[in-house]
Design a protein that fits this description.
The complex is a heterodimer of chains A (278) and B (256).
Chain A lengths: L1 H13 L3 H34 L11 H14 L1 H33 L1 H16 L2 H12 L3 H25 L3 H9 L4 H37 L6 H10 L3 H29 L8
Helix pairs in contact in A: 3-11, 4-7, 4-9, 4-10, 5-7, 6-7, 7-9, 9-10, 9-11, 10-11
Chain B lengths: L1 H6 L4 E12 L2 E13 L4 E5 L6 H9 L6 E6 L2 E2 L7 E4 L11 H11 L4 H14 L15 H14 L4 E5 L7 H18 L2 E5 L3 H7 L2 E4 L9 E4 L11 H13 L4
Helix pairs in contact in B: 3-4, 3-5, 4-5, 7-8
Classes of the chains: A mainly alpha (278), B alpha/beta (256).
């Protein structure tokens, strides 16, 4: 005990103990290793395998060349234009899907007859791959922006719509009854009970749709586009600029992660009351 | 005294009340020609075997069910549907998980169009009354069963009803919490001067809280029994007179 006290006072005179700092750094390193160790090992393995020639560097160029291609693309602004047009396509489609899917889902979930009448056709549409319908959309809307946006919209609409309907239908009727005992009318019950209760379910749909939006974006840009990140993947491959191709692929992964991150943050803010966020 | 009681608000008159449900094409009579007068400010417990219709009776009083025949008068006026002079406390707390304790308690008032600040002020008063003053910012998921039910009680009281309808409100709580809550309900009833109608399957709870205990008959159309509980409050569960009442009530159900 006495020893500890004297030790403390010495420590106080010398400022923060270097050992404490080391232990802290060690802990942070350990946590990062636990979380991202495998990812780092994957990239390190790729780099080594490619430079050592175990992997064909023509197909899998070393990571540093991919990184420099990404940097060149971004700093010259060439890839920035692609990102902008891709985000615009996915963004318009996603916003339209949200703007139509959520209100329609809230409405359909409330009125059983409407929901029952529309459910079979919704299930059919949902099971029909949007990509299979892309040729139809091209025929209808041409090869320009409209068909690209529309195919993404189509694919993102259903997860949002179905999740919203599900959320509304699963609201505990006991809570609705409770609100009624206080004299809440239909509108108040909807606004104060049904809507907030559906938010977690709606977010499940939003996150699913965001992933789908990027997936469809790439597919749409690979067919008949001359701009966009998806186009860049194909174009770089045609021109055998493999590092650029990987740079565009990683860029798409980052876009997906960023979209998901935004939605998770938004969900945390709106659903502070709930413990489940993932 | 009698005169004051007759004038007290929250008087319930039940006349020839009949209710049946149709399940799988079969008609099941739950209540048959029930007649009952509940005095304003009285505490009445309704007991009965399962299937005796006690919850149905309470739900009709609340306005959540409509009777097939007969009716309910409150302070002399016939009632249809829900009304602001009645509040319901259910067996489950039925809290909105996205609102804090304060938000939940203020919910009833806000729904009734009370401005937010006034609703919050009155809600705080009732949160203190149920002993949750430090928890107004807590989320429902952080509360124990007993605390959650206190929130439900506060929410029902905040709208200042004349009649408080309780549907087995302590049925889901453990024995210790239940007894504490019974004492709380006794105190709140005395302070708020409301008519309290309590459906319960716990005979001790009925004797502890009620001025009169209504025993619903098992056989439909049979006579209802009303037992006056003539004991000073707060009641002592171990008082020989209390125990005698319990024995009497148990014998109503053929129990020993």
């Amino acid at each position: 005990m006495t020893y500890q006290i004297s030790n403390e006072s010495v420590r106080a005179q010398r400022g923060p103990d270097i050992r404490v700092a080391l232990i802290r750094t060690g802990r942070t390193t350990r946590r990062l290793t636990a979380d991202y160790g495998l990812l780092i090992a994957f990239f390190a393995g790729w780099q080594i395998a490619s430079t050592a020639g175990w992997l064909n560097p023509a197909v899998f160029p070393p990571i540093d060349r991919v990184a420099s291609a990404l940097w060149t693309g971004l700093s010259s602004g060439a890839l920035v234009d692609d990102i902008a047009i891709s985000l615009q396509r996915a963004g318009i489609a996603f916003a339209a899907a949200v703007g139509i899917g959520i209100p329609l889902g809230l409405f359909m979930g409330q009125i059983r007859a409407v929901e029952r009448a529309l459910d079979p056709i919704l299930q059919l549409f949902r099971q029909t791959s949007a990509l299979a319908l892309y040729p139809v959309f091209i025929l209808l809307l041409g090869l320009g922006e409209a068909s690209k946006v529309f195919v993404i919209f189509w694919a993102t609409l259903f997860p949002i719509l179905l999740a919203t309907i599900g959320g509304v239908k699963e609201v505990d009727p006991k809570l609705i009854e409770m609100a009624r005992t206080f004299g809440a009318n239909r509108l108040t019950t909807f606004r104060r009970v049904v809507l907030p209760a559906s938010v977690p379910s709606i977010f499940v749909g939003l996150r699913l749709s965001a992933t789908t939006a990027l997936l469809l974006l790439i597919a749409a840009e690979m067919i008949g586009a001359n701009k966009g990140v998806g186009f860049q993947v194909m174009n770089a491959q045609y021109n055998f600029r493999i590092p650029l191709m990987f740079a565009a692929i990683f860029l798409l992964a980052f876009l997906g992660l960023a979209a998901n991150w935004v939605l998770v943050v938004l969900q945390r803010r709106l659903c502070r009351w709930s413990t489940a966020h993932h | 005294m009698t005169l004051i009681q007759a004038q007290a608000k929250g008087e319930v008159t039940i006349r020839d009340l009949t209710k049946s449900f149709t399940i799988d094409g079969q008609t099941l009579t739950v209540l048959k020609k029930i007649n009952l007068d509940i005095r304003g400010g009285e505490s009445l417990a309704i007991v009965g075997a399962s299937g005796s219709g006690k919850t149905t009776l309470l739900r009709i009083l609340a306005g959540l069910e409509e009777p097939d025949a007969g009716g309910v008068l409150i302070d002399g006026a016939p009632v249809h549907g829900l009304g602001r002079e009645r509040s319901v406390i259910f067996q489950e707390p039925r809290l909105l998980p996205w609102l804090t304790v304060l938000g939940n308690v203020a919910f009833g008032l806000e729904v009734q169009g009370e401005p937010k600040s006034e609703a919050a002020e009155r809600a705080r008063h009732y949160i203190r009354l149920v002993g949750l003053g430090e928890f107004e910012g807590a989320w429902p998921r952080q509360l124990s069963g007993g605390m959650a039910q206190r929130v439900g009680i506060a929410r029902a009281l905040t709208v200042q009803p004349e009649i408080l309808l309780l549907d087995e409100p302590l049925g889901a709580l453990d024995a210790m919490t239940k007894m504490t809550m019974q004492e709380e309900l006794n105190r709140i009833w005395a302070e708020e001067k409301v008519t309290l109608v309590l459906v319960t399957h716990d005979l001790e709870e009925a004797i502890f809280l009620a001025d009169r205990v209504l025993v619903l008959p098992k056989a439909k159309g049979g006579a209802i029994r009303l037992i006056d509980i003539d004991l000073p409050r707060p009641r002592d569960r171990n008082d020989p007179a209390f125990v005698r009442y319990r024995r009497q009530l148990m014998s109503e159900f053929g129990l020993h």
